[in-house]
Task: structure prediction
Amino acid sequence: MPSDESSMEFDLFEDVRLSLTRILVKDGRDPVEAERVALYVVQGIRDVPKLLTALANASTKDDADVHKLLHVVLDNAASLEKARAILLGLDNPPLH
Result:
C-alpha cells in the first residue's frame, strides 16, 4: 500500500476490485480475466480522487502537487486502456 494511502482508501479500492471481479465473472468472464480487468481498472482510477481533491483545494502554492498528481493519473490511464482491450477481446492489449 502506498505510504500516502489510508487504510480506509485501501479497503475501498479492494472492495471495488472484488466487486468488479464478481460482476464480470457473473457476466460470464473467465475469473482470471475478470481479476486482471479489475486490477487494471483500480490501478487506473486509484489516484483520481487525490487529483480531484487537489484541484478543488488548489492554490498557487499547490500547483506543483496538482501537476504531479495529473501526471500520475495520466500515466495510470494506460491501465484503463489495458482493461478496455481485454473487455473488447483484442488479442494484444497495449503494453504501456
